[in-house]
């Protein structure tokens, strides 16, 4: 089963002053976050990827052609429609085929997904995720849940941490507890999707994913949520990047299931 990763976003809030790099290339522990995401899937046995390029696509291409450490077996890299390059290296690598697909500079997420149809046309199901989120998600369990319910789309629902400390107050005004960045009670969309190939029948031109396709699917009872109770976070800001690097350096990176197994 192929895994699509939306890597077209700008890292605008991850930098101060200088021109932003693609968000997917901001590093944790010396490797881009997209590498960490790919390792999460590879650890679950899903090794073939389609990267949906957008902003500064060439920088992402350059990383995979020139900088990705090929640690092992052969790796096939398909760029665009015509070029098929196979790299043979003496080290071990967990990735299989990596397709780099140009999906437009400012395309909506739904439109980006619509443009990779030819690369997943032989798949009954395929996965998709954002290029800025990591989790200790049981990906095999997510896929099993999707296959069992048989609907067109599954999203992973998570509970985010509050940005602020919470104060619990009794009716008389007495403070009963102070909680630092507690989990919020509401579920949010954490990414990590599984789609049946029929998703392409629901994607319209220039379609926003969440406010377009997903709303139509939900209205027809074709969108399911897999609840993930464990670790989840995304890298939206410079502060997030610092926090994730600190977690990595202190060997406290729950998403690094390949390293923790």
Give structural attributes.
alpha/beta, single chain, Spore Coat Polysaccharide Biosynthesis Protein SpsA, Chain A, 16 strands, two-stranded antiparallel ribbon, 10-stranded mixed β-sheet, 261 residues
Overall description:
The protein has one domain (3-157, 186-260): Spore Coat Polysaccharide Biosynthesis Protein SpsA, Chain A, CATH 3.90.550.10. It has 261 residues and is of the alpha/beta class. The longest helix is centred in the C-terminal third of the chain and has 12 residues, at 238-249. Helix content is 27%, strand content 26%.
Summarize the structure.
The protein is of the alpha/beta class and 261 residues long. Helix content is 27%, strand content 26%.
Domain count: the total is 1
Which structural category do the helix and sheet elements fall into?
Answer: alpha/beta
Helix content: 25-40%
- Would you identify the CATH architecture? Alpha-Beta Complex
Question: What is this structure's SSE topology?
Answer:
Layout: E1 3-6, E2 27-28, E3 31-32, H1 33-43, E4 49-53, H2 57-67, E5 75-79, E6 83-87, E7 97-102, H3 109-114, H4 117-120, E8 125-130, E9 133-135, H5 139-149, E10 153-158, E11 166-169, E12 175-179, E13 188-189, E14 193-196, H6 209-219, E15 223-227, E16 232-234, H7 238-249, H8 257-260
């Amino acid at each position: 089963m192929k895994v699509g990763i939306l890597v077209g976003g700008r890292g605008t809030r991850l930098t101060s002053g200088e021109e932003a790099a693609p968000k997917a290339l901001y590093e944790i522990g010396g490797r881009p976050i997209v590498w960490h995401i790919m390792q999460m899937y590879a650890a679950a046995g899903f090794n073939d990827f389609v990267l949906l390029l957008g902003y500064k696509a060439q920088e992402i291409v350059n990383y995979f052609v020139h900088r990705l450490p090929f640690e092992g077996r052969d790796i096939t890299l398909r760029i665009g429609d015509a070029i098929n390059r196979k790299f043979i290296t003496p080290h071990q690598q967990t990735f299989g085929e990596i397709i780099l697909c140009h999906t437009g500079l400012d395309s909506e997420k739904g439109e980006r997904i619509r443009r990779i149809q030819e690369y997943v046309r032989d798949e009954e199901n395929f996965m998709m995720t954002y290029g800025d989120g990591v989790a200790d998600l049981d990906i095999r369990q997510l896929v099993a849940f999707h296959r069992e319910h048989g609907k067109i789309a599954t999203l992973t629902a998570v509970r985010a941490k509050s940005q602020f400390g919470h104060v619990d107050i009794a009716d008389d005004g007495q403070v009963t507890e102070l909680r630092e960045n507690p989990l919020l009670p509401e579920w949010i969309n954490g990414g990590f999707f599984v789609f049946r190939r029929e998703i392409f029948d629901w994607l319209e031109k220039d379609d926003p994913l969440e406010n377009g396709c997903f709303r139509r699917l939900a209205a027809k009872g074709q969108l399911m949520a897999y609840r993930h109770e464990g670790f989840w976070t995304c890298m939206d800001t410079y502060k997030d990047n610092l926090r994730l690097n600190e977690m990595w350096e202190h060997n406290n990176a729950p998403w690094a299931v390949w390293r923790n197994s």
